[in-house]
């Protein structure tokens, strides 16, 4: 596996230990493929035939596209849970809420650990295994750790997860514990955790699976591959996704660039990255046309997965915007929760961070940036069940313990006076 630095362009190899996550200059690495004379039509056929596979790596919605993700990786090292294979839906109520002609929701929430992190994590853990690592680590606001601990458990190897001691969702930490990871909480932010692992992960024998790991980006490309394949290789006018550490925005851009260069798609969609107002350094940078990102020292949003003040992948995400004439926006916590209620009500559901995409789409349509006659796909990054506190405070009121049946649930007596009335 070859890589290059996205800042200075220097070449690097990812083919042997020790794993490299960054260039000597400090820039992030990105995988470089030699697709040679890859034939898009032949590969489309192959990817299509694999849709019928059940017990091979082709049954995974990531490894189905192995030729575009990690062609050199020996199959024997692949650690998979048949991730991907997620649905695309077009619920009328959410389309109406967004105010656009046609809307797709790509439900990465349907992944085995409940978030899109599985798309990247299967690639990272498999690559780490192929290099001979026997333990894995990450720092995370939640979903990365759930995903890593799930794949480590699948492979039967230990994992270490560092979690900031506030601003995270309890459900995700519980999921991580249940999969058997060693969890260590520290006072500080996600950014402090990244710094520690960068300096100390290798020393401790760990393959580090944070979003800066270039293999995670390779795996996450499969989200747009699958979306494109499901839509018969014609993508909508816009793809809208939430931005935290910006790995997903980076992967989306790289995936699109490769699909376009190889001739899988004839036209590039535009990309909109949506941040939370309380954690929106990337949006502020783009909005003010600054040339560098100014970290947000105290990020705060109800969307815990977006609670990141210093997104490491901002340069790659900026490339995505350049490639696709992309835009950014930021939405308030109230806008996020209103969009979440709508997505939940549609029967699909998502966690707050995912709803930011829908809230952002609505805002961009209302602001005239996206025309109501255009078409869009929102990436729903994580499952409804990931953050039950958010559901609790929205539907039952903040002090649930004191007034258990406040808003969402009415009290009834099961006697002859109780009548079913579902029209209300
Ligand atoms: C990680 C995550 C995000 C943010 O993705 P980045 O790649 O960090 O920008 C958004 N939503 C959910 C549910 C996530 O788990």
UniProtKB/TrEMBL annotation:
Keywords: Lyase, Pyridoxal phosphate
Enzyme Commission code(s) on record: 4.2.3.1
Highest taxon above the source species: Bacteria
Cofactors, names only: pyridoxal 5'-phosphate
Chain ranges of the Tryptophan synthase beta chain-like PALP domain: 80-382
Gene Ontology molecular function, alphabetical: L-serine ammonia-lyase activity; threonine deaminase activity; threonine synthase activity
Pfam families assigned: PALP
Lyase recorded as keyword: yes
Annotated positions of the N6-(pyridoxal phosphate)lysine modification: 117
Cross-referenced InterPro entries: Ser/Thr_Dehydratase, Thr_synthase-like, TrpB-like_PALP, TrpB-like_PALP_sf
Record GO biological process: isoleucine biosynthetic process; L-serine catabolic process; L-threonine catabolic process; threonine biosynthetic process
Protein family according to the UniProt entry: Belongs to the threonine synthase family.
Protein name as catalogued: Threonine synthase
Organism of provenance: Paenibacillus rhizovicinus
């Amino acid at each position: 596996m070859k890589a290059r630095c996205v800042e200075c362009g220097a070449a690097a190899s990812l083919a042997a230990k020790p794993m490299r996550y960054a260039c000597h200059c400090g820039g992030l690495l990105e995988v470089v493929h030699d697709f040679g004379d890859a034939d898009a039509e032949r590969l489309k056929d192959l990817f299509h035939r694999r849709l019928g596979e059940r017990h091979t790596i082709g049954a995974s919605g990531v490894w189905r596209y192995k030729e575009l993700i990690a062609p050199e990786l020996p199959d024997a090292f692949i650690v998979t849970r048949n991730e991907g294979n997620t649905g695309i839906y077009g619920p009328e109520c959410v389309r109406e809420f967004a105010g656009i002609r046609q809307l797709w929701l790509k439900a990465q929430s349907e992944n085995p650990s409940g978030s899109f992190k599985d798309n990247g994590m299967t690639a990272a853990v498999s690559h780490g295994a192929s290099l001979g690592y026997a333990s894995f680590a990450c720092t995370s606001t939640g979903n990365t750790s759930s995903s890593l601990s799930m794949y480590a458990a699948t492979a039967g190897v230990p994992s270490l997860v560092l979690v900031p001691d506030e601003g995270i969702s309890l459900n995700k930490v519980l999921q991580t514990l249940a999969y058997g990871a060693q969890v260590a909480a520290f006072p500080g932010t996600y950014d402090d955790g990244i710094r520690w692992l960068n300096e100390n992960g290798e020393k401790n024998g760990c393959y580090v699976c944070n979003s800066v790991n270039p293999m995670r980006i390779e795996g996450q490309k499969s989200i747009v591959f699958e979306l494109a394949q499901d839509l018969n290789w014609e993508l909508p006018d816009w793809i809208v996704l939430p931005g935290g550490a910006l790995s997903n925005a980076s992967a989306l851009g790289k995936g699109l660039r490769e699909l376009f260069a190889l001739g899988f798609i004839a036209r590039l969609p535009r990309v909109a990255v949506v941040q939370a107002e309380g954690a929106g350094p990337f949006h502020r940078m783009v909005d003010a046309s600054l040339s560098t990102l100014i970290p947000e020292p105290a990020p705060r949003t109800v969307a815990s997965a977006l609670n990141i003040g210093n997104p490491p992948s901002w340069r790659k995400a900026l490339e995505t915007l350049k490639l696709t004439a992309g835009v950014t926006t930021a939405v308030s916590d109230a806008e996020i929760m209103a969009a979440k209620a709508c997505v939940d009500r549609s029967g699909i559901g998502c966690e707050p961070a995912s709803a930011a995409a829908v809230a952002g789409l609505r805002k961009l349509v209302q602001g005239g940036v996206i025309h109501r006659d255009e078409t869009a796909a929102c990436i729903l990054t994580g499952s409804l069940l990931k953050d039950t506190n958010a559901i609790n405070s929205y539907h039952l009121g903040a002090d649930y313990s004191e007034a258990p049946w406040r808003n969402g649930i009415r009290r009834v007596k099961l006697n002859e006076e109780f009548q079913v009335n579902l029209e209300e």
